[in-house]
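BUG: 3D viewer hangs when loading the predicted structure for this chain

Environment: internal workstation, default settings.
Expected: structure renders.
Actual: progress bar stalls at 90%.

Input used:
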Amino acid sequence: MKQLSRIFSFLMFCLLFTTCLQVPTELNRAESLIETKPDSAMKILLHFPSTKRATDRNKALFWMVWIQVQDKKNLSLKPDSLLDFSIQYYQNHPEGDRLATCYWLKGRALKYSFQYEQAVTFLLKALDCTENSQNSLLLGRIHFDLGEIHSTQRDYSPARKEFTQAYRCFKNGKADKQAFYSMLYIGRTYHESKEYTCALSFYTRMLPMSKDSLLRGAVLQELGLNYYDAKQYPKALVCLQEVIDYPYLENNKAIRYMMLADLYYDLNQTEQAFRCAKRALSFNHDIRTKKNCCRILVNSSTGPGKMAKIKKYMKLYQDCSDSIKKIDTQTKGSYIETMHTTRMEVVKTKHWLWYLAGLILLVIGLSLFSYSRLHKRKEKQLTETKEQHKNQKTAYQKAAMQRHREALVHKIAKTKASQTAVRKQLLPAEKDALDKKLYDDILHFSDTVYFFKLMDANMNNLMSKIKERYKEVSDREICWCCLSLLNVPLRDILLLLQYKLETQDKMKARLAKKFQLQYASELMCFLQDILSED
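Structure tokens produced before the viewer hung:
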């Protein structure tokens, strides 16, 4: 009986030992299937026992593989705190390229949620971990994502370098499809920097290389957009109409319909433009595509009975513009990369200097002196780089505000031009009412709070500065300052503020005194000075 009990205990121990070994084996198998059979990898993960009882090693591997499979299957990838567990584990227990893979996945997820500053930081960490790695596919993906962020932030030269590096890595790893997209994105950087001829040579060279309909569709999409921006509308129409039925990934279908809508609008085919813009919004789309579609829907919704639609799409457009403005004010990835490289150099220099000081005791004083000088130089470089970035960021924000002001002025003028035929048939009072409504729709002039917020956002906080510095200036006088800086016609200013010409002259004289100016003629120069302040 004792013999039988021992045999049974031994068999249970073997079964338990086999079960414990099976879990990591299955996870390793799932990891090996990610590139070739992601569906099989997902199936293994779905049948994996609860991670609550798993070891930390198995938990870390499970969440890394799970998120990697999601990315491979083009599923929604968002910043996931579960991946932080894997990062923490592999920081303490390095295993091959797994920490680099976790950093890359974290950076990619942050990129998809438009958190570019953090995304670049994690991608650079991933590059640091792959300094001596032979994993060409992982290296290519890291460089590709960095290139995408640089390109989105209009930093085309660094973006081109990253895509070129990604192309080489993918070629080394025999990942032809990824190499193809890297080359396509190099062409896109030329197109986005308005070098249309150079971009065209890329796309025409790549078209015969596209071996399946998915790749051909991607090239045709870029080719159509390049023709469109180069004002070659007939060629753009051919490409965009052809590519609309090609297979697509992620939000490319929405982009194609949006580009086609833009083209139809420029060709004065407003009904087709409206339909295509609506169609684009029915597919998976990003915020920039949504903004452009709302713009097209607003511009092509002219006519009686469509004011409700115009207001609806105008609000959506404004919401998208505000969100994109926040995204665009993030620190550029190239600056973060420069700072990261400089910091790494400082750290390496520190270590080298301390090691040298330990070996050469006789010259320790000289070594410390050299270290001090080198460290100060690095600190100075960091300070200069920060100052340069600050100036660049300020200049970019001012340029962005200038563009938004010009867009408002252009929109007012364009809307007025589109109403020319209607205005001819109206009485003077009706024309005045129409003009007031136009300024309410575009500038929300009747809503003083909203109008001041809009003007602050586009005029370097001009309203807030005047209210803070010159408390005796009235809201009506501030409105006059805003409208004058927007180059609104004198007739419209008088109408909106209910001034007569002589009343306005008196108001300007009073306002000049409040601003402590000698003459009313100095008002515009004074306001321009406030507008251009840092």
